């Protein structure tokens, strides 16, 4: 996109030309009067400022000195005019710098759809690293708000019904749409598109604008619900999840015995983290109840929202174990059919093997992968069904003609599970996960939901990349112990983005507008 600034700048310059000349002449005249007046009045005896304090020898001015003072008038006029123009230009630059739009946080209304207008970027481009940092922070902040609002709406929808939360659902969908576009812009930016520096600045400014618009959408409907009916509902949900922890623990133990370690590595520790979130929810639900009984509705709302966030993440942890168990069972039943379908897809390449080019090594690799899978299945040892399907898909799909629908189904199975697993991890650790992991996850979901069968392996690869990057972010961040005065489980709640790290005890949780 090309800025319209170069076309408008000459007209503005001409429109202000006469004003600038007037300022320059006025400033120059004032400077001349101030500098020359003492010399012009001292000779005729007219009192001037501070003349009385001068020595007597200086009371009279010789004729040649008067001529010199007169001769200095034109140079002084020139110097004064130049100084006035320079001063006016400086003031103009200061005013432009003060009035320039600066990217703000979520919910800060910008002057235009983008937080930094394209004309401003062209006139005084900020440092690319600074604008990039603003764009990254805006994406993380907007993603946190959208995720929190989605969980909040889930609670309210179950409690109040879809009609009562209709405006909030529309606001959330609109915010999700803005965020989806922003993440797509970021993905393209990371891929080097666009390449021109000015266009890349405009892309970053557009990302910030989209994120701020997402924040405004979430601010629009106002506060969602009140603590009176929502508190008992959250308490009931808490008790239900607390009762599920034992069953989830037993299911996870069974999965670790039945399958290879890689099959369950993504949910290892889920039950313990669910318990930690529920412990935090216990304290916040109690505080919300006390605040509501004491007539402190604002405090009750904050604690209730924090408790709802913790309960929601506990549900994600436990639900991840259940979902993985179902996916492993489905994949286990699909592996034999996938092998048969792979053989059918490779029949034509084997009948007419390529002599050169990239298809030849791919065919050799596919034969090797299928032989390895058969050997692994014949060994009778625990294996990873999703991992096996992934290996078959990656090896055979690039050579496949699409005749075998089972391979397409297998690709969908592994991609969907990878995206959901990465999304669960990012959502429950968003206090530490950076923008790159979130961007790759958004791209994986886009490929999965809007792409065709050929895009499913790419969606799987992006989701695995997102999960790896998110895990690295969490390891680098760590899980700090609660500080003095903080309730149990606060460290996990901060890691999960449920409460702000700068004020976990009293800060507002993200989501819809607080007031």
UniProtKB/TrEMBL annotation:
Residues 486-495 have a biased composition (Gly residues). Residues 480-515 are annotated as: Disordered. This is TPM domain-containing protein. Keywords: Membrane, Transmembrane, Transmembrane helix. The chain crosses the membrane at residues 21-37, 72-91. The keyword Transmembrane helix applies. It comes from the Bacteria.
């Amino acid at each position: 996109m090309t800025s319209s600034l170069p076309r408008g700048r000459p007209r503005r310059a001409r429109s202000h030309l006469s004003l600038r000349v007037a300022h320059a002449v006025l400033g120059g005249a004032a400077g001349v009067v101030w500098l020359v007046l003492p010399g012009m009045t001292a000779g005729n005896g007219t009192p001037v400022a501070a003349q009385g304090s001068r020595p007597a020898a200086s009371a009279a001015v010789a004729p040649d000195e008067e001529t010199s003072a007169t001769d200095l008038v034109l140079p002084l006029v020139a110097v004064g005019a130049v100084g006035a123009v320079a001063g006016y230009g400086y003031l103009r630059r200061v005013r432009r710098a003060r009035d320039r739009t600066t990217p703000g946080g979520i919910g800060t209304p910008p002057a235009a759809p983008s937080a930094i207008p394209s004309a401003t970027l062209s006139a005084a481009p900020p440092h690319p690293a600074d604008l990039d940092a603003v764009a990254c922070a805006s994406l993380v902040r907007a993603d946190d708000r959208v995720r929190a609002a989605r969980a909040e709406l889930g609670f309210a929808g179950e409690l109040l019904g879809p009609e009562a939360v209709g405006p909030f659902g529309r606001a959330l969908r609109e915010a999700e749409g803005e965020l989806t576009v922003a993440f797509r812009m970021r993905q393209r930016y990371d891929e080097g598109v666009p390449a021109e520096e000015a266009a890349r600045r405009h892309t970053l400014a557009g990302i910030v604008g989209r994120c701020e618009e997402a924040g405004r959408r979430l601010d629009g409907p106002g506060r969602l619900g009140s603590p009176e009916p929502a508190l008992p509902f959250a308490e009931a949900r808490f008790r239900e999840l607390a009762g599920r922890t034992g069953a989830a623990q037993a299911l996870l133990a069974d999965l670790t015995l039945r399958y290879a370690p890689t099959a369950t590595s993504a949910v290892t520790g889920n039950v313990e983290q669910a318990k930690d979130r529920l412990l935090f929810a216990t304290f916040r639900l109690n505080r919300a109840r006390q605040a509501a009984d004491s007539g402190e509705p604002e405090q009750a709302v904050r604690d209730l929202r924090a408790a709802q966030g913790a309960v929601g993440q506990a549900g994600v942890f436990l639900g991840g174990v259940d979902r993985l168990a179902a996916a492993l069972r489905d994949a286990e039943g699909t592996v034999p059919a996938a092998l048969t379908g792979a053989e059918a897809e490779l029949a034509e390449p084997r009948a007419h093997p390529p002599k050169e080019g990239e298809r030849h090594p791919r065919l050799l690799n596919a034969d090797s992968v299928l032989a390895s899978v058969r050997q692994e299945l014949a060994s009778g040892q625990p294996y990873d069904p999703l991992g096996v399907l992934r290996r078959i898909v990656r090896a055979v799909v690039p050579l496949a003609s699409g005749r075998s629908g089972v391979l397409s189904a297998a690709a969908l199975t592994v991609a969907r599970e990878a995206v959901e697993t990465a999304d669960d991890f990012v959502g429950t650790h968003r206090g530490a996960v950076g923008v790159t992991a979130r961007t790759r996850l958004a791209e994986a979901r886009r490929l999965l939901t809007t792409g065709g069968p050929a895009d499913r392996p790419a969606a799987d690869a992006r989701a695995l990349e997102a999960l790896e990057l998110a895990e690295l972010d969490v390891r680098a961040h760590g899980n700090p112990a609660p500080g003095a005065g903080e309730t149990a489980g606060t460290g996990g709640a901060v890691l999960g983005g449920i409460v702000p790290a700068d004020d976990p005890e009293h800060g507002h949780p993200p989501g819809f507008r607080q007031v």
